[in-house]
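ok so for the tutorial part 2 we go from a plain amino acid sequence to predicted structure tokens. step 1 is just haveing the sequence, like this:
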Amino acid sequence: MFNYIMNKNRTLKRLLDILLSLAVIIFVLSWLLPLLVIIIKMESAGPGIFKQERSGRNNKPFWCYKFRSMRVNNSNAQAIKGDFRTTRMGAFMRRTSIDELPQFFNVLFGEMSIVGPRPHMLKHTEEYSLTVDQYMDRHFLRPGITGWAQVNGYRGEIRDHEQIIRRTEYDIWYIENWTITGDIRIIINTIVSVVKGDENAY
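step 2 — the prediction. this is what the tokens look like for a chain of 202 residues:
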């Protein structure tokens, strides 16, 4: 019975992911993606879409997509407040989280979920796995565009070790207490946060 319920829940979560990602891709990205790519390329040389290898479910690497918000560079350092690499359009996209919208393609492809632990760069996964208890357990689920940690104030730059510990605690709590209604609440809270503005969005 337990396995049946778990499989049913996974199916419901995946169905929600497919329906919402298709809606965003068809009704928003179908016109916004080409428009933003043109604007991004006009402001600075380079591709309109940025891709970076991140750690996925079961720690399997995948290419995570974003609108490029920085000038092309060779640095893999995380973005910080006032980052000189960020373009003017990039700063706007990051404040409004528009830069994350291409990840709905990752969701449709089954590499991500709309809600789940945020995916980290491979080097950060390797680093945090050595110093944070249960860190690798957060890879039990598909990574998310948003998550329980993010709606509780832990998004963006990781400034100290305590922050990654707290984020991991929120991620593990989410995995252990997941429900469809919980996902819907997180999505709604994320939208509200984007509309109101998040001080950690930069």
